[in-house]
Design a protein that fits this description.
By secondary structure, the chain is mainly alpha-helical. The protein contains 6 helices and 3 strands, in the order αβααααββα. 51% of the residues lie in helices and 10% in strands. Strands 1-3-2 form a 3-stranded antiparallel beta sheet.
Length: 204
């Protein structure tokens, strides 16, 4: 019975196991979605959510600029960063955790990640999953606002310009049709019937 022995061994030594989960959590914070086995995904989620909680607890302080923080607030941020660095060894991932991920989940108390099963891995048939951060509903992109009044004015101006141009175009087409309807005048001497000329007597 494995009482009070949290976590999975995964047939690895303690140093290998810590490095494995540290890399998985860093990749999750960097790319926000990783593909791994079910067992690793479940254990990584447990560690990642505890780490995100450190950043979320100081999210109200992270919103402020460093110059406006009190000494107590600065000490809270330093302590949270040090606790996160115990798990995440990648400095870039830690910066993203406290700059983007922590403030994003400020109004969410737990449940920052989700696991989506994607079938078996070819070769050894290991069950695979996608471990990803839950997208924040409040962070959805706003659609561009279209000015209806400006669009209506532009359409009315276009219609007026078309109406003004319509009589001119009609006059041009009417002139072309009249020219096409009129027969061309035949040149003088070619259209009339020519009379036979009297033959001149030949001189002897």
């Amino acid at each position: 019975m494995r009482h009070q022995r949290a976590g999975l061994h995964l047939s690895r030594t303690s140093a290998h196991r810590k490095a494995l989960f540290s890399n998985l959590v860093s990749a999750l914070f960097t790319y926000e979605r990783i593909r791994t086995t079910d067992a690793k995904a479940k254990e990584t989620r447990r560690i990642a959510e505890r780490t995100i909680t450190w950043a979320r607890r100081v999210g109200d302080v992270l919103v402020k600029s460093p110059e406006k923080r009190t000494p107590e607030e600065s000490a809270r941020v330093v302590h949270a960063v040090r606790m996160a660095r115990r798990v995440v060894r990648d400095r870039t991932a830690v910066v993203k955790l406290f700059d983007e991920i922590g403030p994003r989940f400020l109004a969410r108390h737990g449940g920052y990640t989700r696991i989506v099963k994607i079938g078996q891995r070819p070769g050894d048939a290991a069950p695979m999953s996608l471990l990803e951060l839950v997208p924040d509903a409040a962070a959805t992109r706003e659609k561009p606002v279209v000015d209806v009044e400006a669009g209506a004015e532009a359409s009315t101006e276009g219609k007026a310009a078309k109406k003004k141009a319509a009589p001119k175009a009609a006059a041009k087409t009417a002139g072309k049709s009249e020219k096409a309807a009129k027969p061309k005048a035949a040149p003088a001497g070619k259209g009339r019937e020519s009379k036979p000329k009297a033959a001149k007597p030949k001189a002897k």
